[in-house]
Write a structure and sequence with these properties.
The complex is a heterodimer of chains A (246) and B (214).
Chain A lengths: L6 E12 L2 E7 L11 E7 L5 E7 L9 E7 L5 H9 L5 E8 L14 E6 L3 H13 L6 E7 L8 H10 L3 E7 L16 H9 L6 E6 L1 H13 L7 E5 L6
Parallel strand pairs in A: 7-8, 7-10, 8-9, 10-11
Antiparallel strand pairs in A: 1-2, 1-6, 2-5, 3-4, 3-6
Chain B lengths: L24 E2 L20 E6 L5 E4 H5 L4 E3 L3 E2 L4 E3 L4 E5 H5 L10 E6 L4 E5 L9 E6 L2 E2 L9 E3 L12 E7 L6 H4 L30
Parallel strand pairs in B: 1-6, 2-13
Antiparallel strand pairs in B: 2-3, 4-7, 5-6, 7-10, 8-9, 8-13, 10-11, 10-12
Classes of the chains: A alpha/beta (246), B mainly beta (214).
Organism (chain B): Hymenobacter nivis
InterPro entries (chain B): OxRdtase_Mopterin-bd_dom, OxRdtase_Mopterin-bd_sf
Protein name (chain B): Sulfite oxidase-like oxidoreductase
Chain lengths: 246, 214
C-alpha cells in the first residue's frame, strides 16, 4: 500500500481546542511516519456519489505512532469543516491519504540550527507538529514561536505551549493579540511588525530557518519583513491558510 | 462497496453551468499558495525569455512585452489544494503569439517554465499551443498583484494551477520532460484536474516522459 492510497481511519479522540477549533485523532491501519509540517488529504463521500476533499496539516509528531491528529478550524459555511465539527464522533470512520508534502517540513538539521516559527491563527498547526517533534525527539535546536491571534479564546494549544516553554529554556513562546488581549496582558498587542520579528530573532543564537504559516496577509507581510532583515529567501518557508486556501 | 460518510451531503449546489473536476470545490476568493516569500521584481530589469531548443533565443523587456498583441481570456482555474474558481478575468499575451517569434528545433517537445525567485514547472509544449496558454498581465482589469504572480505569470487553465508559474521569467524548450519544483517534490508530471493527477502516483502507469497525454 502506497502512502497515497486512500485508507479508512477511525476517530479515537476529539478535543475542543477553541470555540471554533477541534482536533481529531485518528487511528490509521496503514500509518506512515510523517515529517513535521506535512498534511493529509481527507475525502468525504455522500450517499449520492458526491465527493469532496480537503488538505489538513498534521498536528501530531511522527513519534505518535499509529495515529495522526488533525486540527480543523470551523469555516463559516464550511462543507467539510462543518461536517467534521458537527457530524463526526469518536468511533466514526474517515477516508484519508498521506502523509503529503515535501517542502514545508522541518528536517531538524544541525543541533544548533535555530528555528523561527511564525503563526497566524490555525496556521499554528503544522508548526505545532514541528514543536512536538522537537520535544518528543529531544532535539536541542533553539526555537521561537511567534503566534498571532485575534483574541484570548482563539489561542490553539495554549496550555501545552505554555508548559513547553516553562519546561524548556531553549524554547520561547511569544503571543501577540491583534484585537483583544487578556486582562493585565503586558505582552504584544498588535499585528506582527518589524520590531517584533527582530525581537523574536534576537532570542536565537544565530540566523534561523523560518517557517511562516497563516492567512495570506500575515504571511506576505512576515516573509517580506524577514527578507528585509537580511534573511535569505531559502531560509524562509511559507504556507498560507485561509478559509479556502487549503 | 464504496465508503460513505453517513449524514454527509453537498452543502452547495453542484452542476449548473459549470462543472467541478473531481475532489474540487468552488471558491469566490482567490487564495494564494506559494512556498516562499513573494519576489520583488523591478520592471526596469524585468525580462521574458524563450530559450533552449530554438534557433534564435529571444528576450523581451517589460515595455517590449507589453507592446505584443494582448487578448482577454476568462478561464475556470483549478488548484491542486482543491479549490476551483469559475470565470476568472485576465488579459495577457497568448503563447501562440510568443512562439511566432522563434523557430523551434524539431526535437523541442517539453517546456520548463522558470520564474523570478527560482520556481520551475514542466509542461508538454503541445499544452501551450492553440489558445491553451497565456502570459497573464492583468487580473480583473488591474495589473496582476505580486502575491498572485505579478507582474506576469503563466496561465494554463486546463492543468492544475501550480503549472501556471507565478513571476514567470521565461520558457526553456527541451527534448525531454524534466520535473520542476513541485514535481521534484512528488507532484504529478502533468496535472490534469479532470483525471485528478495531483501526485506522481496519480499519473498513468505508463506516464514516463515520452508517453504523457498531450
Amino acid at each position: 500500500m502506497s502512502r497515497l492510497d486512500w485508507q479508512i481511519g477511525t476517530v479515537v479522540a476529539i478535543t475542543t481546542d477553541t470555540p471554533r477549533v477541534k482536533t481529531f485523532t485518528l487511528s490509521l491501519p496503514h500509518w506512515t511516519a510523517h515529517r513535521a509540517g506535512q498534511h493529509y488529504d481527507l475525502r468525504l463521500s455522500a450517499a449520492d456519489g458526491y465527493q469532496t476533499e480537503r488538505s489538513y496539516s498534521i498536528a501530531s509528531p511522527p513519534e505518535q505512532t499509529g495515529e495522526i491528529a488533525l486540527t480543523v478550524e470551523l469555516i463559516a459555511d464550511g462543507e467539510v469543516s462543518g461536517y467534521l465539527h458537527e457530524g463526526v464522533a469518536v468511533g466514526d470512520q474517515l477516508e484519508l491519504r498521506g502523509p503529503i508534502g515535501g517542502y514545508f517540513v522541518w528536517p531538524a538539521g544541525a543541533p544548533a540550527a535555530p528555528l523561527l516559527l511564525v503563526a497566524g491563527g490555525s496556521g499554528v498547526v503544522p508548526l505545532m507538529a514541528m514543536l512536538r517533534h522537537r520535544q518528543r525527539a529531544g532535539l536541542p535546536n533553539p526555537a521561537v514561536l511567534l503566534f498571532s491571534i485575534r483574541t484570548p479564546e482563539e489561542v490553539i494549544y495554549q496550555q501545552e505551549l505554555e508548559d513547553m516553554a516553562a519546561a524548556d529554556p531553549a524554547f520561547t513562546l511569544l503571543l501577540t493579540y491583534t484585537r483583544q488581549a487578556p486582562a493585565g496582558w503586558a505582552g504584544y498587542h498588535h499585528r506582527v511588525d518589524a520590531a517584533m520579528l527582530a525581537e523574536a530573532v534576537a532570542y536565537l543564537p544565530g540566523a534561523p530557518q523560518c517557517y511562516v504559516c497563516g492567512p495570506t496577509g500575515l504571511v506576505e507581510n512576515v516573509a517580506t519583513l524577514l527578507q528585509t532583515q537580511g534573511l535569505p529567501d531559502e531560509a524562509i518557508r511559507t504556507e498560507r491558510f485561509g478559509p479556502t486556501g487549503g | 462497496m464504496p465508503f460513505i460518510n453517513k449524514g454527509f451531503h453537498a452543502k452547495r449546489p453542484t452542476g449548473g453551468a459549470h462543472k467541478l473536476p473531481p475532489g474540487q470545490y468552488e471558491t469566490q476568493d482567490f487564495p494564494v499558495l506559494t512556498a516562499g516569500p513573494t519576489p520583488r521584481i523591478n520592471l526596469a530589469n524585468w525580462e521574458f525569455r524563450l530559450e533552449g531548443l530554438v534557433e534564435n533565443p529571444v528576450k523581451w523587456s517589460w515595455n517590449e512585452f507589453n507592446a505584443l498583441p494582448q487578448q482577454s481570456f476568462n478561464p475556470d482555474i483549478h488548484c491542486v489544494t482543491k479549490w476551483s474558481k469559475f470565470d476568472t478575468k485576465w488579459r495577457g499575451v497568448s503563447l501562440d503569439t510568443l512562439l511566432e517569434h522563434v523557430q523551434l528545433k524539431p526535437e523541442a517537445e517539453f517546456v520548463l517554465a522558470f520564474s523570478y525567485g527560482g520556481y520551475t514547472t514542466n509542461l508538454p509544449l503541445a499544452d501551450l499551443r492553440n489558445g491553451q496558454a497565456f502570459i497573464g498581465l492583468q487580473y480583473e482589469g488591474k495589473p496582476l498583484a505580486p502575491e498572485h504572480g505579478g507582474p506576469a505569470r503563466l496561465v494554463v487553465p486546463h492543468l492544475y494551477f501550480w503549472k501556471s508559474a507565478k513571476w514567470v521569467q521565461g520558457l526553456r524548450l527541451m527534448e525531454v520532460n524534466k520535473p520542476g519544483f513541485w514535481e521534484e517534490a512528488g507532484y504529478s508530471m502533468y496535472g490534469d484536474p479532470w483525471k485528478e493527477q495531483r501526485y506522481g502516483s496519480d499519473d498513468d502507469d505508463e506516464a514516463d516522459p515520452s508517453s504523457l497525454r498531450r
